[in-house]
Write a structure and sequence with these properties.
The chain has 259 residues and is of the alpha/beta class. It has nine helices and six strands.
Length: 259
C-alpha cells in the first residue's frame, strides 16, 4: 500500500471551505452547569435545557448548509462526575431519542453514536442501536453524537484494532499509513470536521476529535450551551467563512510575493 501524506489525507476527507460546500460542524456543548448555577437551579436542569438547545441547533443546521453535525454528549471522563449526574445524562440521551427519533427519521436525518459501547447499560445500548437502525438509510443530514467518547480512547482503540489485525496475519506493520489508521476510528464514515465550536467561553478541545481536528478551524463562543441555537451557529459559520484554509500550505498570492 503506498504511503499517504497527512496533507493528502486531510484533503481527501475535508471540503475546501467554499460557500457551496456542505460543512461538517462539531460542537463541544459546554456550560449547562454554569447556566443552571446562574439561575439558582440544580445542574440537572441545565442539562435538560441543553437538550432543547440541541434540538434548536439541529433544526437550524441544515439551513446553514451543514451536512454533518457532531456534538459532544458524554465523554469518557464524565464517568467521574457524581453518580446522580451521570444517571441524568444517560436518561437525557434516552429522552432525546424517544421524543425526537421519529421526527429526525422523517426529516431524513441519519443518527450515529460514536464512542465506546462497553460499559453502557443494556437499555442505553438498545436506544443507541434503535436510533442508528431506524435512520441508517437517511442521507439528508447526519447527526453524530459522541457518547462515552474520548479522542485519546478512540485513537487507542483504533491502534489496538490494527495491532490485532497484524497479530492475526491480516496486515503488516508497514501497511500502516494515516489513511489506513483513520479507517479504524469511530468517525471513519464521516468527513473530517471543517469547524469545531466550543461554547461557554472556554478555550480548549477537551479530548474531542483529537485526530480529526488536525486542520479544522476553531471557534470559541461566549454562549452557555442552553442559550445556544441557530443564530449562534450562524455566527460561528460566518466566522469560519471569513478564513482561508490552507492545510499547511500557502496561498497563491503569497507564492507570487515570495517569488
Amino acid at each position: 500500500m503506498p504511503a499517504t501524506t497527512g496533507l493528502q489525507n486531510v484533503s481527501e476527507r475535508a471540503g475546501g471551505g467554499g460557500s457551496d460546500q456542505r460543512l461538517h460542524v462539531a460542537i463541544i456543548m459546554d456550560g449547562n452547569g454554569r447556566w443552571a448555577k446562574q439561575r439558582g437551579m440544580p445542574r440537572v436542569l441545565g442539562h435538560r435545557a441543553g437538550v432543547n438547545a440541541l434540538k434548536r441547533t439541529v433544526e437550524g443546521a441544515q439551513s446553514q448548509n451543514v451536512g454533518v453535525l457532531t456534538v459532544f454528549g458524554f465523554s469518557t471522563e464524565n464517568w467521574r462526575r457524581p453518580a446522580h449526574e451521570v444517571s441524568e445524562l444517560m436518561s437525557l440521551l434516552k429522552a432525546y431519542v424517544e421524543s425526537d427519533l421519529e421526527r429526525l427519521a422523517k426529516a431524513g436525518v441519519r443518527v450515529r453514536i460514536i464512542g465506546r459501547r462497553t460499559g453502557l447499560s443494556a437499555d442505553i445500548a438498545e436506544v443507541i442501536e434503535r436510533a442508528e437502525k431506524r435512520t441508517e438509510n437517511n442521507t439528508e443530514f447526519t447527526l453524530q453524537v459522541a457518547f462515552n467518547y474520548g479522542g485519546q480512547a478512540d485513537i487507542t482503540d483504533a491502534a489496538r484494532a490494527f495491532a490485532e489485525k497484524v497479530e492475526r496475519g491480516e496486515a503488516k506493520a508497514s501497511d500502516l499509513t494515516e489513511a489506513t489508521f483513520e479507517r479504524f476510528l469511530s468517525t471513519a464514515s464521516s468527513p473530517a470536521p471543517d469547524l469545531i465550536v466550543r461554547t461557554s467561553g472556554e478555550r480548549r478541545i477537551s479530548n474531542f476529535l483529537l485526530w480529526e481536528c488536525a486542520y479544522a478551524e476553531l471557534v470559541f463562543q461566549d454562549v452557555l450551551w442552553p442559550d445556544y441555537g441557530p443564530e449562534a451557529l450562524a455566527a460561528a459559520i460566518a466566522d469560519y467563512r471569513r478564513r482561508d484554509r490552507r492545510y499547511g500550505g500557502i496561498a497563491a498570492d503569497d507564492v507570487a510575493v515570495a517569488g
